Amino acid sequence: MPRVVFLGTSAFGGDVLRGLVRQPGIEIVAVVTQPDRPSGRGRREQSPPAALAARELGLRLVQTADASTEPVEADAGAVVAFGQIVRPPLLGAYPLYNLHPSLLPRWRGAAPIERAIMAGDAETGACVIAVTAELDAGPVHGCVPFPIRPEDDAGAVRGRALELGTPLLAAALRGETTGVEQAEAGVTYAHKIEAADRRIDWSEAAAGAANRVRALSPHIGARCELDGEPVTVWRARAGEGMGVPGTVSPPLRVACGEGVLEVLELQAAGRRRMGVADYLRGLRTAPERAA
Predict the structure, then answer these.
(1) Which of 11, 39, 90, 288 could form a disulfide with 46 if both were Cys (CB 3.0 to 4.6 A apart)?
(2) pTM assigned to the model
(3) Hey, what long-range contacts does 197-201 have (CB within 8 A, 24 or more apart)?
(4) Distance in angstroms (rounded) separating the CA atoms of residues 248 and 286
């Protein structure tokens, strides 16, 4: 049975860890993750989701800002949404395998699920690759494609990648797979989500705005202003219609460069997430303009 060190940080990493411990023939000897960092409005120290999962599972936990310097003794390593560049001596100490939620070589990088949905991709996947010095470019040890349905948000796609990808990762860690080099054609990069990526652009087509909302839900949120008040849009759908981009019609349909975006669920600053009907009941007048 291989002794495996798990290197991960994000919520996706924590969920993969929970799934991996249930896979046969795997012994997790340690979990390596980032140090606690200030977060939220109060800037209180908070542990990464993978650290919380490790404590929940009773696993040995190592928190370090540089995991590559002193590799944990193991037979193999799983790297999932870790957030650190893996360098020697860790790179080369033992086989390292990464679970990446895309159809590599498409969407290498930090935000593959979000970028795939924003781009309107009809399909994505879960790939397990050997970790190499080049970002997400290692040989593929297993890959399962699956569709992105029109109603899927990032949470739904992440759940499917978790379900299909974790057994592939376990198989690679057990030494049951053989790597195949990635194609040189079709490489794209899923850059980290920045503040500008959250902004709804009402001059774009409604389908693109709806994809942005889906891509950023339920974990980040797309942003706009309604009559000057900032809101986060969590659920919306594209529809037919015309109007000056940014013009609002009842109940909360915003004209886009092409079509209209019907907002279904949103959150005003300092308030909870709610459906449009509840949101409108709390206003004196319905919004007239989105920006």
Answers:
(1) 39
(2) 0.94
(3) 197/114, 197/118, 198/222, 198/223, 199/223, 199/224, 200/224, 200/233, 200/261, 200/290
(4) 9
Which residues have C-beta within 8 Å of that of residue 42, sequence separation ≥ 6? Answer: none
Give the pLDDT confidence of 196-235 residue by residue, as tens digits. 999 999 999 999 999 999 999 999 999 999 999 999 999 9
What pLDDT does residue 44 have? 85
- Between CA 275 and CA 1 the distance in angstroms is 50
Q: What are the phi and psi torsion angles at 277 (to 5°)? A: -60, -45
Render pLDDT for 28-53 as a digit per residue (tens, 0 to 9). Answer: 999 999 999 887 666 788 999 999 99
Q: What is the pLDDT of residues 114-154, one digit of tens each?
A: 999 999 999 999 999 999 999 999 999 999 999 999 999 99
- Max Cα separation, the chain? 65
Our CA angle for 97, 82, 79, nearest 5°, is 10
Please, which residues bridge with residue 261 across strands?
238, 254
Residue ranges in the chain assigned as alpha helix (H): 11-20, 49-57, 112-118, 154-173, 206-215, 276-281
Contacts of 290 (CB under 8 A, 6+ apart): 200, 202, 224, 225, 226, 246, 247, 248, 254
Domain ranges of the chain: 3-189, 195-281
| Architecture in CATH for domain 3-189 | 3-Layer(aba) Sandwich (3.40)
Torsion angles phi and psi, residue 220, rounded to 5: -120, -60
